[in-house]
């Protein structure tokens, strides 16, 4: 209890800084200015379920979690039509992605900050029947408050790196009750399950990775085919979901792109597109922007649009996966595998350890010790179409072999919904 009191006090003290950060981020992403009261649990609109219909709430913090949970949200909408859906997120890009993916099929709001008052107001307003938190979203006050109100929570697509497990162990008085409060923890792998149990989770089962169930958007694939046709014989080297500092690392290693190669740079956060363009312009490169159209004469294309990773991967001959060249844990490589695009990884993929292991063992990806070695691998792949085809096919086979996590998650959620209905009569 003392840990949660201290945690709650720290959050209240941090509120001015949290508001200042919202306003700072809103300079580039105006979405952060919208409905700020929801961050404190004040919702202007009516409750989602005034009729008493069951409400299933899914929280996907940002873009990656929104995309990972898309198949599960659709399965819930199709398989449980008697329920209403509430989707929450934390980032502006995540909110836009949820709206693009699900439109009017669900209500989308901000999840409040984890202060006791905000959490209480959120739960009182929406009265969820069951909640699903995607991946590593473990907020102590929220989780414990849900348990106190009899709202079962599922930690879906759960992963926990060794680094994160060590951090939770240092605050075990706060973390263990939070993890223990989940009614179900659906782990991506046996290694994740073991680490989750070690930090306090109890009802843990291995259900696989939801990301393997994602299917590429056929409309985006068709767009990519037209894009490639316009490029003629030029090849496409993709720097996918790069984080701050990585673009400089990769272009230092690459130097001037060969005339027959278009480099497509897609920063993880589209708000950084202007910074990336300035970096490339300072290197004397001819630059295009995805939002502006034509890239035929450019040396580099900056991907500044949301929800188009299917387009970028389908257009690419080889993809270097961002977040892995700086020690940030990597980004989702499964989208590249599903598109049949060979993936080259940096040394830091600890947030996707199991998927990385599977991809390397299947021959669908290569891992390099740094940006220079990764660029050398990528250039060798560009020169070897037969090897690219073999790696692409290996990636597709790997994704096909590991599908099914959505159905396993849905079965667990349905069992909890049934148990909740029996308990409430």
List the helices and strands and how they pair.
Layout: H1 2-26, E1 55-59, H2 63-68, H3 70-79, E2 84-89, H4 92-102, E3 107-110, H5 116-126, E4 130-134, H6 140-148, E5 153-158, H7 162-170, H8 172-180, E6 184-187, H9 190-198, E7 204-206, H10 218-231, E8 235-242, H11 246-254, E9 261-267, H12 273-282, E10 287-289, E11 300-302, H13 309-315, E12 318-321, H14 334-338, E13 343-345, H15 353-362, E14 365-367, H16 371-382, H17 385-401, H18 405-424
Parallel strand pairs: 1-2, 1-4, 2-3, 4-5, 5-6, 6-7, 8-9, 8-12, 9-11, 10-11, 12-13, 13-14
Helix pairs in contact: 3-18, 5-6, 6-8, 10-13, 11-16
Entry summary:
By secondary structure, the chain is an alpha/beta fold. It contains 18 helices and 14 strands.
Any key phrases for this structure?
48% helix, seven-stranded parallel sheet, 425 residues, single chain, Rossmann fold
The biggest sheet, with number of strands, parallel, antiparallel or mixed sense and barrel status, is:
7 strands, parallel
Query: What percent of the residues sit in helical stretches (DSSP H or I)?
Result: 40-55%
Count of DSSP strands: 14
Helix- and strand-based class? alpha/beta
What's the oligomerization state? single chain
Walk me through what this model shows.
This protein is an alpha/beta fold and 425 residues long. It folds into 2 domains: 2-12 and 19-208 and 404-424, 3-Layer(aba) Sandwich (Rossmann fold), CATH 3.40.50.11720; 218-401, Glycogen Phosphorylase B (Rossmann fold). It has 18 helices and 14 strands. The chain has helices at residues 2-26, 63-68, 70-79, 92-102, 116-126, 140-148, 162-170, 172-180, 190-198, 218-231, 246-254, 273-282, 309-315, 334-338, 353-362, 371-382, 385-401, 405-424, and strands spanning 55-59, 84-89, 107-110, 130-134, 153-158, 184-187, 204-206, 235-242, 261-267, 287-289, 300-302, 318-321, 343-345, 365-367. The strands form 2 sheets. The protein has a 7-stranded parallel sheet, sandwiched between helices. Helix 14 (334-338) links the parallel strand 12 and strand 13. Helix 5 (116-126) crosses helix 6 (140-148). 47% of the residues are buried. The mean pLDDT is 92.
């Amino acid at each position: 209890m003392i840990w949660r009191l201290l945690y709650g006090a720290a959050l209240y003290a941090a509120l001015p800084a949290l508001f200042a950060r919202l306003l700072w981020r809103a300079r580039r992403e105006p979405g952060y200015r919208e409905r700020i009261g929801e961050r404190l649990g004040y919702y202007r609109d009516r409750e989602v379920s005034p009729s008493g219909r069951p409400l299933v709430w899914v929280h996907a913090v940002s873009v990656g979690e929104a995309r990972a949970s898309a198949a599960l949200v659709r399965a819930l909408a199709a398989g449980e039509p008697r329920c209403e859906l509430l989707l929450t997120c934390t980032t502006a890009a995540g909110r836009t992605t949820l709206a693009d993916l699900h439109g009017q099929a669900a209500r989308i709001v901000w999840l409040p900050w984890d202060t006791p008052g905000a959490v209480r107001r959120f739960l009182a307003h929406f009265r969820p029947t069951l909640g699903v938190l995607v991946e590593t979203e473990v907020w102590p006050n929220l989780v414990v408050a849900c348990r106190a109100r009899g709202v079962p929570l599922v930690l879906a697509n759960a992963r926990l790196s060794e680094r994160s497990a060590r951090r939770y162990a240092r605050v075990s008085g706060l973390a263990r009750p939070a993890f223990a409060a989940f009614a179900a923890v659906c782990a991506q792998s046996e290694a994740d399950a073991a680490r989750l149990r070690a930090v306090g989770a109890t009802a843990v089962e291995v259900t696989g990775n939801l990301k393997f169930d994602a299917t590429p958007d056929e409309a985006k694939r068709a767009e990519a085919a037209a894009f490639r046709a316009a490029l003629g014989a030029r090849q496409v080297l993709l720097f996918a979901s790069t984080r701050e500092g990585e673009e400089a690392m990769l272009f230092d290693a690459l130097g001037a792109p060969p005339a027959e190669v278009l480099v497509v740079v897609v920063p993880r956060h589209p708000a950084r597109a202007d910074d990336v363009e300035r970096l490339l312009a300072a290197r004397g490169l001819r630059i295009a922007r995805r939002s502006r159209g034509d890239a035929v004469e450019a040396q580099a294309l900056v991907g500044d649009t949301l929800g188009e990773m299917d387009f970028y991967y389908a257009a690419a001959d080889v993809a270097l996966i961002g977040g892995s060249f700086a020690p940030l844990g990597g980004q989702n490589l499964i989208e590249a595998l599903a598109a049949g695009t060979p993936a080259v990884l940096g040394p830091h993929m600890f947030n996707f350890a199991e998927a990385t292991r599977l991809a390397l063992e299947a021959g669908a990806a290569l891992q390099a010790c740094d940006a220079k070695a990764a660029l050398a691998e990528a250039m060798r792949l560009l020169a070897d179409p037969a090897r690219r085809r073999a790696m692409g096919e290996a990636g597709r086979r790997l994704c096909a072999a590991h599908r099914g996590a959505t159905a396993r998650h849905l079965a667990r959620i349905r069992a909890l919904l049934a148990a909740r209905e029996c308990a409430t009569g």
